Every structure is written in C-alpha cells, then in structure tokens.
UniProtKB/TrEMBL annotation:
<dbReference type="InterPro" id="IPR034288">
    <property type="entry name" value="CuRO_1_LCC"/>
</dbReference>
<dbReference type="GO" id="GO:0046274">
    <property type="term" value="P:lignin catabolic process"/>
</dbReference>
<keyword id="KW-0732">Signal</keyword>
<dbReference type="InterPro" id="IPR011707">
    <property type="entry name" value="Cu-oxidase-like_N"/>
</dbReference>
<keyword id="KW-0560">Oxidoreductase</keyword>
<keyword id="KW-0439">Lignin degradation</keyword>
<comment type="similarity">
    <text>Belongs to the multicopper oxidase family.</text>
</comment>
<feature type="domain" description="Plastocyanin-like">
    <location>
        <begin position="163"/>
        <end position="303"/>
    </location>
</feature>
<dbReference type="GO" id="GO:0052716">
    <property type="term" value="F:hydroquinone:oxygen oxidoreductase activity"/>
</dbReference>
<protein>
    <recommendedName>
        <fullName>Laccase</fullName>
        <ecNumber>1.10.3.2</ecNumber>
    </recommendedName>
</protein>
<dbReference type="InterPro" id="IPR011706">
    <property type="entry name" value="Cu-oxidase_C"/>
</dbReference>
<dbReference type="Pfam" id="PF00394">
    <property type="entry name" value="Cu-oxidase"/>
</dbReference>
<dbReference type="Pfam" id="PF07731">
    <property type="entry name" value="Cu-oxidase_2"/>
</dbReference>
<feature type="signal peptide">
    <location>
        <begin position="1"/>
        <end position="27"/>
    </location>
</feature>
<dbReference type="InterPro" id="IPR045087">
    <property type="entry name" value="Cu-oxidase_fam"/>
</dbReference>
<keyword id="KW-0479">Metal-binding</keyword>
<keyword id="KW-0677">Repeat</keyword>
Length: 569
C-alpha cells in the first residue's frame, strides 16, 4: 500500500506545480520609468511651473492585471524630495514599496535620486491611483492605477462598452510647496485652491463622447487635496459597482460622493436624448458648519451622431447639484454601499476580535514652534491629533527601517493609546473651551500588533475647532466598514447596528462630521503602516498614527529585507 500512496502524493505535487506554473505563465511584469521634474502648464490664462511625471499632468496611467508584478523606476529630477505612494495597493510583504515619506522610506533626493518600486498585485481588481507622498506635491504628481481581472476572469457585472478615467483635482495659481510652507509658518489653514479640475483641465475642458444605448464604466478618482466632491452627469444615472477597488452590491444613484483618496467605479448607461450635450459636474462638498467656500467644475458628455448636424446643438444641460453643505446626501451615499458576496459566497468579515480601540481625532491647538515665525503666539498653532497625540514624522531614518534595525528607541514608541486620555462629549462645540480637551502632545507613537491579530477601531470625530468630515486612509490593508453614524459612539446601542454579513471594504473611510465609523481588519501584513487624514492640510499638523505589524511565524509571513537601492536619509 505504501507505493500507491507515495505515487498519489507525487502525482498530486506535480499537478500542483503544473497549475502554479500555468498560472504564473499568465502573469506579467508591468514596467514603467517615472521622470519627476518641472513642467510649465497654462491654466486659467496663467503659466505655472509644477512638479509632474514624464512631462504629463496628470501623470501616466498604469494598467495591470491581478497577479502581475509592477515595477516603477522613479528618477527625481525635481528640486524637491519625492516619494510615490501606490494608494490602495495592499503591498503584501512589500512594505518597502508603500511610499509614505519617513514611514516606509526616506525621500528620493532631488537632482537625480533614484528608487525602484516593485510590488505584486494580489487579489485586487478595480480603480486605484498613485500620488506623491511628500508635502503638497500630490496636487500635481498623481495618476490612475487600474487593476483588471486576471486572464480568463471577468468582472462581476456586465462588461461595459468602454471605460473612462475621471481624475478630479484642485489647482492653485501658485507653488503648492509655498502654499504648504506658508500655512505651517502661520500655524493655520492653507490658502484655498482657485479651481477644480477634471483630468487636469478646468471647466468645460474635458469631453467624453458616448453612443446611445451603450454602457460606460466611469473610474472616478478624487485626487483633490482638501475637498470631498459631489459628482453628477445631467440626465444620467449610475450603478456603483466598486469603491476603492473592492466590489460592491450594485447601488443605483444619480449622485456619487467621493472623498480625497477614494475611488468609485460606476456604470453609466448612455440613454439620454442624443441631440443634446450634457455637463458632468464635480462640486465641493463642505461638511464644516461655518464653511462658505464652494466650487464647481465641468466636463462635457456628447453623443456620437450618425450624420452631420444641420443646426447647432442647444446649450449643454447642467445637472441639478446638491447644496454644497448637503451632508444628508453625502452620508446617504456612504452608508448605502454594501460588499458584494461573489458566487453566493459566505461572509468574510472576521467575527472574533482580539483588540478594540476607540480613536478620537480632530483639530486642537499647540504652542507655536520657534520655526513658526508667522504664528500668533497668543492664539497658538493649529494642531491635529488622534487620541490627543499629534503625530511627528522622524527625521533620521524611516519608521520601517528603524523597525528592521530594531532601533525603535529614539525613533518611535509603542505606546499609542487604545482610548483617548479624556472622555467627554466629543461632538459638542463647547468642548473647545476646555484646555484639557484642546491640548495635544506631540510624539511618534505607534500601535504594535501581533501578526494575525484582528483589530476593531471606532473612529470618533470630534467638534473641537469645528466638526468636519475627515477621510481616514489606512495603508497596507482594506478594512470592513461595519457601521457609521452621527453623534457619539455608544457601544451598547451601536454595536447592534453592525453589518457582519456584507459590509463594504475600503482603504479610505469618510467619517461623518460630528460622527463615527467602526472598521475591522486582520493584521496579516507585516510592516509599518500609517493611518492618516487624506485632507492634506491636516497631515503636516499631525492627524496620523501608525500600526507596527509583527512578522508571522514562517518565512512567507515575514517582511523581506529592503531592496539594494532603498533610499537613505
């Protein structure tokens, strides 16, 4: 009996290796070179020198399939430090390629510094994007990252006739580096942008031609620095099929809401009157109660005509947009998304939780630093914090390198608190009068997690210095959004509202103004992963923290050493 048993196992092993070979044969290496440098752009009647990739604004589109390896050689010819983040890529065992400056790497130095990012696309399909993760430079250094199904696989929705990438951004008639520097010196908010853009063009510049009766996949990316956006197309509606490259149950709507860092895949059927033209519009959504600024930009949807038009078309139709402060519409969109259980599959959300955290976040004040020469010494500087800790980026080496060298001492501490130091009515504006509540401490504190540990985090927005919807982005993971709501989180009442069957997954959650969101994920990706607000005005003021995830017990669950060209500080 031993020989047939041995033969069976040998045959099984050979079949397994053959299948792996055939699967790997379909995988490809997608390779790009990014030359980062100065580019002169003419917008709004003014010439502006910006930082861009390969002389393009927005930058090059990267397209890959599930299972591919992506290799991007970055050559920094700009006058600024640079790093590139592949927003939403899980970076399984490749944290060295994640990109946040001084977290997973030191910057790529100006005047010719180089670094090659290499990562695998594993179990991901949909729309992501890449952007600079230094200063405000992502205002112009960004592009789409499109992940298609593996060869032989298909979308879990009807195949569209065509697709269009819609990159929504902001524009300043000034150096964005100077805009950030001025805000930091003054300890206040940066100057607002002067326009919104669609694919790098201001109002009316972008056009999408469609055929009546066809279905189009719109890959909508909010690359704006500081504004959530409403997106509509006049006389058309959408079926949302994915968010942050995670498939959703089909959700029918005439408005898409997308926060900075988020993406939405939406099917649009071209079923309007073909003799007209239609504006697509992106409009600022303001969740801050006393905000008055709003802005709108447009593109144009036109229909192919079978014969030459004898008369000029009527003026384009503008969609009816929500009020710029319509939080009810925004929250209804965010709360309506659910995750797609493909092929009738069982729920995948982890039910056992090892660690629970309550993380409050928002704005506060701190004494002006000596370098803040324009700061009001009486009022102090704006600070942002999570659990009253204002995150400070290291300067001598990246957090990930310090983890590898086991040199946490002096670089960071593993004492990020599981709960805020003071419990109070987080959504009350009156809390701003309490110095104990307003005060923040500065530090580089991380939360250490065992490999395989399941974590639930309740993200509680505060009303200190104003309640505002904050998009929080977690690197290295997709998380389940179990529930979200307004007011203070109440465990006895709100845990019962958790969706443990088909919650949608994201990498960036828009936490309601004066509200909360409960997320859950399993820490099965070793490395150092930052979680931060994707309103870029808040990141340099400290609205961030990091998770340090231990290596697993086997070689294939441990982070490999860094590549040989890893940047040094």
């Amino acid at each position: 009996m031993a020989r047939p048993f041995l033969f069976f196992h040998l045959a099984f092993a050979l079949c397994f290796l053959l299948v792996r070979y055939l699967l790997s044969a379909d995988a490809a290496v997608v390779e790009h070179t990014f030359h980062v440098g100065n580019l002169s752009v003419e917008l709004l009647g003014q010439s502006q020198v910006i930082t861009a990739v390969n002389g393009q604004f927005p930058g090059p589109k990267i397209e890959a399939r599930d299972g591919d390896t992506v290799v991007v050689h970055v050559v920094n010819l700009s006058p600024y430090n640079m790093s590139i983040h592949w927003h939403g890529i899980l970076q399984r065992l490749s944290c060295w390629a994640d990109g946040p400056n001084m977290v997973s790497q030191c910057p790529i130095r100006p005047a010719g510094g180089r670094y090659t990012y290499r990562f695998n696309v594993t179990g991901q399909e949909g729309t992501l994007w890449w952007h600079a993760h230094v200063s405000f430079l992502r205002a112009t250094v960004y592009g789409a990252l499109l992940l298609r199904p593996a060869p032989g696989a298909s979308y879990p929705f009807p195949r569209p006739h065509r697709e269009a990438t819609i990159l929504l951004g902001e524009w300043w008639n000034a150096s964005v580096v100077d805009v950030e520097r001025q805000a930091l010196l003054a300890g206040g908010a940066p100057n607002i942008s002067v326009a919104l853009t669609i694919n790098g063009l201001t109002a009316g510049g972008y056009q999408l031609a469609v055929e009546r009766g066809r279905t189009y996949l719109l890959r909508i990316i909010n690359a704006a620095l500081n504004y959530q956006l409403f997106f509509k197309v006049a006389a058309h509606s959408f079926t949302v099929v994915a968010a942050d490259a995670c498939y959703t149950d089909p959700y029918h709507t005439d408005v898409v809401v997308v926060a900075p860092g988020q993406t939405v895949d939406a099917l649009m059927r071209a079923d309007a009157h073909p003799g007209r033209r239609y504006y697509m519009a992106a409009q600022v959504y303001q969740s801050l109660a006393n905000a008055t600024y709003s802005a709108t930009t447009t593109g144009l949807v036109t229909y192919y005509q079978g014969r030459r038009r004898r008369q000029p078309p009527p003026p384009p139709m503008m969609p009816g947009m929500p009020a710029f402060n319509d939080s009810a519409t925004a929250q209804r969109f965010y709360a309506s998304l659910t995750g797609l259980l493909q092929d009738g599959g069982a729920p995948t959300v982890p039910l056992h939780v090892d660690t629970r955290m309550l993380v409050t976040f928002g704005l506060g004040v701190t004494p002006c630093a000596p370098a803040q020469t324009l700061c009001n010494r009486t009022r102090g500087s704006v600070a942002a914090s999570m659990n009253n800790v204002s995150f400070q980026f290291p300067t001598a080496m990246s957090l990930l390198e310090a983890r590898m060298r086991r040199e946490a001492g002096g670089m960071y501490t593993r004492d990020f608190p599981d709960r805020p130091p003071v419990m109070f009515d987080f959504t009350s504006a009156a809390a701003s009068a309490d110095p104990a509540v307003m005060a923040t401490s500065k530090g580089t504190k991380v939360k250490a997690l065992r490999y395989g540990e399941t974590l639930e985090v309740v993200l509680q927005n505060t009303a200190i210095l104003g309640a505002e919807n904050h998009p929080l982005h977690l690197h290295g993971f997709n998380f389940y959004v179990l529930a979200q709501g307004v007011g203070n989180f109440n465990a006895h009442r709100h845990v019962r509202t958790y969706n443990l069957v088909n919650p949608h997954q994201r990498n960036t959650v828009a936490v309601p103004a004066g509200g909360w969101a409960a997320i859950r994920f399993t820490a099965d990706n070793p490395g150092m992963w930052i979680m931060h607000c994707h309103l870029d005005a808040h990141l340099p003021f400290g609205l961030a923290m990091a998770f340090e995830v231990d290596d697993g017990p086997t070689p294939d669950t441990a982070l490999p050493p860094p590549p040989p060209d890893y940047p040094q500080c």
